[in-house]
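Handout, section B. The chain below has 520 residues.
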Amino acid sequence: MDFVSDPPISTKIRKMKERVRWQEPPILARGIDQTRMVLEDNREESPDFSFLVIGDSGSGPHRGQNPQRQIAEQMLAHRDSCRFVLHTGDVIYLVGSSEFYRKNFIEPYREFLVGGEKPGQIAYDRMVFNSPILPVPGNHDYYDLPFFYGLMMQTTLPVRQLLRVQLDLDVGWHGSRQGKAYARAFLDYLKAFDSDEELGRHLDNHYTAKTDSGRCLRYQPGSFTRLPNRYYTFRYGGIDFFALDSNTFNAPPPLPETRAGDDRRTQLQLRLAELEQQKLQILEAAEKFDSESPEQADERNDLGARLEQLEEIKLDIEKQLTSDATTTVDREQLDWLRRRLIESWNTADVRGRVVYLHHPPYVTEATKWNQAQTLTIRRHLRQVFDAVAETVGQGLAGRPLVDLVLTGHAHCLEHLRTGNTGHADANINWVICGGSGFSLRRQRLEGPHLEEPGDELQHPVAQSLLYVGRSGQGALKRRPYSFLRIDVRDGRPPRFTVRPFVAEHFKRHWSHSEIEPFEI
């Protein structure tokens, strides 16, 4: 029995469209672009500016030591000098529930919120940011709690003690309700308006920014801080930022109807059985812990993290086993990205491009590097980038198609650079910021060089240049949580200085440091 369930892609798309009343008549009549916003922060816009990046942050207190809060406190020193915070997804663990927004988001980032001095009085669906936090949804922000477990959580005290106390999983009475909690927390939830008249007044008040694609939402720190859609774009300091919802184009292709496909299916089914057995062993081990012992806190946290990791691997396998010709791919979003990148390259005022999404196309974290979802995201982004490069042609002038891609999902900090991939995703810097609060993961044993799957010549397509994640064993285990400050400088192409910051938990003590910056 799975602890989490992931809604079908078609459901995610349909539900999110309903929540923002996607292209309904009052919106179309006003010529509103629901995928764009303008950040009006009342600060002089300059080609020199800075922003912060966090990801995979949404965990609870971890038995008296809260890595997410450690990171948030470090971020405060940069809040006034940075224009905004990009969040690469997984805002709330384990199942994106509204129940945990206060503990797992509002309280840790209270200084970034209006009224944050009294975080207990802030409703998750009424948040206003005084310092912008601009997220994309992660897979956990869409997850739900299967009905069976939800029923047990409501009726069976021993199960609640096992799942919430022994393993500290942040599992409550329900899940995200197919991403509804994320939508209510961050998106402009237009579905809440009862009439077109009421909706029209809201649109005329908040969708008045004028761009070359029509009217769009004005994001106003301290006043109105809602996002227009689950994927969106904005321009700041001459840089176009593209925020993607990778949860709707991560479904792997169907297994081939061949002998090789049958063999692969059998292997996956055997692997599922192995994972289920490992899950039972973790639950048995959890029963032996003293829930009141601080000495065993790290071990309990590791067991909970391992259980979550197994569930994620199982979901990836299940996606492969159930994928068929009817599996949905979010072509609408991918076509939007293609068009907007082409427009960006044809706009003289734009000097650079940053893409951020949850799932990394390139990664060397031990559990993610060869997952089907990782390879699927890579394939879809390549298709988009190839189409853009073919259209823009000589306009690229030898530059990579985008200057930087930021992702999360892998619980680490990693900097990779692609080489000659044979596609338009070559020579791009990819930075994973997924270690800002939840359990950290190790790098794969195979090393820092990534090869293309099925390439008999083992031709490397990407190299990991920096990896910050879990290391060591037993009492010497190190847990370096992280966030980024990125300084953007004037120029065509722009220059980016990436400054990693770390809050490390080692031998039950915290230390804080800055890793040597790197230029891209």
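Note. The first strand starts at residue 32 and ends at 39. Compare this with the example in section A.
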